[in-house]
Amino acid sequence: DTGVSQNPRHKITKRGQNVTFRCDPISEHNRLYWYRQTLGQGPEFLTYFQNEAQLEKSRLLSDRFSAERPKGSFSTLEIQRTEQGDSAMYLCASSSNTGRTGTYEQYFGPGTRLTVT
Amino acid sequence: GDSVTQMEGPVTLSEEAFLTINCTYTATGYPSLFWYVQYPGEGLQLLLKATKADDKGSNKGFEATYRKETTSFHLEKGSVQVSDSAVYFCALNPYNNNDMRFGAGTRLTVKP
Q: ∠ CA(A62), CA(A90), CA(B91), 5° rounding?
């Protein structure tokens, strides 16, 4: 178990360009989450998948954002026509049902820091 | 909606001092409560959790008790170390929901 991994760790792009981030969850976890964290704030939920199905999306996820998890394993988050306001840390987390309590403990990756210039 | 509010930082303590970071929550149901820690340059790590009222979560000398009557989940440690310097996030997972709600984080600096 190598934990949740994310690539790239850092991305600098010019306004208007498209960017794509990848998340590899813990292998036996069926749930995968994307969050955004801006400086001095806690993470904010963007979207989540159960297996390959995207089951919930936040209002923060504008039309320029799209996330996929095609085979129920890794996930990608794409931002089209990036804006300076998209600059943030993008965090991925994964979880599995802990059974009796139904509490989905989420394990986070190191994040991808996006800077839009 | 369901949310958490945690005390603003930064907090600066001397080594071996007692730590309290306050966290209160608002929820319509029966949420699970968590503390996460983020060390410099790293992702969030789960520190401890509590899933129902009166549960006490503990790990690495840190403790927090789920208090339904005061809607609180304060983080405590009896004797902090320099290595505890990090940002601490209180978080709530609404019952039967999937998105974790985080506080703004409290930066702790422990000086030798």
A: 95
Distance of CA A78 to the CA centre of its chain: 10
Residue A28's contacts (CB-CB under 8 Å, 6 or more residues apart) are A96
Interface mutation vs chain B, best among A54, A60, A103, A107, most B CBs within 10 Å: A103
Residue A99 has pLDDT above 80, yes or no: no
Site of tokens 């509490």: A103
What is the distance between the alpha carbons of residues A78 and A65, in angstroms, rounded to a whole number? 6
Tell me the HSE value of A14 on the side-chain side, using a 13 A CA sphere. Answer: 0
Residue B69 sits at the chain A interface (C-beta within 8 Å):
no
Chain B residue with minimum CA distance to A96: B98
How far is residue B50 CA from its own chain's centroid?
11
User: Rounded to an integer, what is the distance from CA A1 to the centroid of its chain?
Assistant: 19
φ, ψ dihedrals at B65, nearest 5°: -115, 130
User: Residue B76 has what pLDDT?
Assistant: 98
The CB-side HSE value for B67 (13 A sphere, CA atoms) comes to 13
Find the distance separating the first CA and the last CA of chain A, reported in whole Å. Answer: 36
CA dist A75 and A70 (Å) reads 7
Residue pLDDT, tens place only, A23-78: 999 988 889 999 999 988 899 999 999 999 998 888 888 899 999 999 889 999 99
pLDDT at A100: 46
CA angle B48–A29–B51, rounded 5-degree value: 30
